[in-house]
């Protein structure tokens, strides 16, 4: 593992040779079962560097995917490579990967400094370098002052930060983080997102699960939607929305003469539903074909009907999540 000049902080890091030659995280037809219970089924993914969010309901397979990435479990079929390394070689993988789960796992009586330092020693650092790196990581997540307190005394947000400190302390090329924004106050949440962006800007992987859907919208370079152990869609939020063909696209139209415009739109087969807004100056329109809808609305405008604005109502993670879990929107 190359050692940066600074013990922590992605801005000072030197990319590893594996990152330069094979920078993707790849799943090739991967399945995992727990006895007769499905974990994930025939997952094929190509995850580029950047911030990728895994989104899905509880039990969908997100944690199984992350445990497979970290080599904590192995697939029953298929192949996984993490920037060129197999999770079946944990000694090599743990040098380039930092994993933070949702679960408290600090040994009884351990302080925050002990927790992070021990993780570094297990990764292969000497005691002296582990101590230096641990203190730098704790400072990076604003836990230096509390580092000599026992982890058992920490609040939920503090435990979240101590796990993140352990994940970043060895300056990995891949971060895999299970619900890393849970329990953080707004200031710490903003600082944590800034850290993710720093890593992503260096061509590293930040793969996280989240139910903070508004923040998924803001921070993610791409999303992976998962349900029942299968990938429903992946890509940028806009392109993911295009993949979910079975659900109509939704638009909010602000307009005068809303009743007449609704009547004209209903002449088209691709329109599935129109709802009048309470002030009768707007419509919620559902269409099976976005391009045909755009052309129809253009013709209506050219015919002299005033359309003040058109806003997609479903290009956000909240809407996609509702679709994923079967909401009827």
Write a brief caption for the model:
With 329 residues, this protein is of the alpha/beta class.
**Count of all domains:** 2
CATH class of the largest domain: Alpha Beta
In CATH, the topology of the largest domain is named Rossmann fold
Percent of residues in helical segments? 25-40%
Q: How confident is the prediction overall: mean pLDDT? A: 85
Alpha plus pi helix count: 12
Secondary structure blueprint with pairings:
Blueprint: H1 17-21, E1 25-34, E2 37-47, E3 50-55, H2 62-69, E4 77-82, H3 90-96, E5 97-100, H4 112-123, H5 127-140, H6 156-168, E6 174-178, H7 186-201, E7 205-209, H8 213-219, E8 222-227, E9 230-235, H9 237-243, E10 249-255, H10 258-265, E11 271-276, E12 282-287, H11 290-302, E13 307-312, H12 317-324
Parallel strand pairs: 3-7, 3-8, 5-6, 6-7
Antiparallel strand pairs: 1-2, 1-4, 8-9, 10-12, 10-13, 11-12
Write a structural description:
- This protein has helices spanning 17-21, 62-69, 90-96, 112-123, 127-140, 156-168, 186-201, 213-219, 237-243, 258-265, 290-302, 317-324; strands at 25-34, 37-47, 50-55, 77-82, 97-100, 174-178, 205-209, 222-227, 230-235, 249-255, 271-276, 282-287, 307-312.
- It is of the alpha/beta class.
- The protein has 2 domains: 25-240, 3-Layer(aba) Sandwich (Rossmann fold), CATH 3.40.50.300; 248-313, Alpha-Beta Plaits (2-Layer Sandwich), CATH 3.30.70.
- The strands form 3 sheets. A 6-stranded mixed sheet has the order 5-6-7-3-8-9, sandwiched between helices. A 4-stranded antiparallel sheet has the order 11-12-10-13, covered by helices on one side.
- The chain is elongated, with a radius of gyration of 24 Å.
């Amino acid at each position: 593992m190359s050692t940066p000049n600074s013990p922590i902080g992605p801005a000072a890091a030197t990319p590893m040779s594996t990152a330069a030659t094979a920078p993707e995280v790849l799943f090739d037809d991967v399945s995992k079962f727990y006895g007769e219970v499905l974990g994930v089924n025939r997952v094929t993914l190509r995850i580029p560097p950047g911030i990728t969010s895994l989104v899905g309901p509880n039990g969908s397979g997100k944690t199984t995917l992350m445990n497979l990435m970290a080599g904590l479990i192995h697939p029953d079929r298929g192949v996984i490579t993490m920037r060129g390394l197999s999770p079946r070689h944990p000694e090599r993988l743990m040098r380039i990967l930092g994993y933070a789960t949702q679960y408290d796992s600090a040994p009884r009586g351990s302080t925050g400094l002990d927790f992070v330092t021990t993780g570094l020693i297990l990764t292969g650092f000497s005691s002296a370098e582990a101590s230096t790196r641990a203190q730098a990581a704790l400072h990076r997540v604003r836990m230096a002052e509390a580092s000599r307190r026992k982890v058992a005394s920490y609040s939920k947000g503090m435990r979240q930060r101590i796990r993140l400190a352990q994940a970043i302390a060895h300056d990995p090329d891949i971060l895999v983080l299970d619900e890393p924004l849970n329990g953080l106050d707004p200031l710490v949440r903003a600082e944590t997102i800034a850290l993710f962006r720093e890593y992503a800007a260096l061509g590293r992987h930040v793969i996280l699960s989240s139910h903070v859907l508004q923040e998924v919208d803001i921070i993610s370079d791409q999303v992976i939607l998962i349900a029942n152990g299968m990938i429903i869609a992946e890509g940028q939020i806009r392109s993911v929305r295009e993949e979910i063909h079975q659900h109509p696209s939704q638009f909010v139209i602000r307009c005068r003469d809303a009743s007449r415009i609704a009547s004209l739109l209903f002449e088209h087969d691709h329109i599935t539903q129109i709802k009048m807004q309470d002030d009768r100056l707007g419509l919620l329109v559902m269409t099976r074909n976005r391009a045909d809808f755009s052309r129809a609305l253009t013709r209506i405008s050219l015919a002299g009907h005033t359309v003040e604005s058109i806003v997609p109502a479903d290009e956000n993670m909240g809407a996609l999540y509702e679709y994923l879990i079967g909401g009827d929107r």
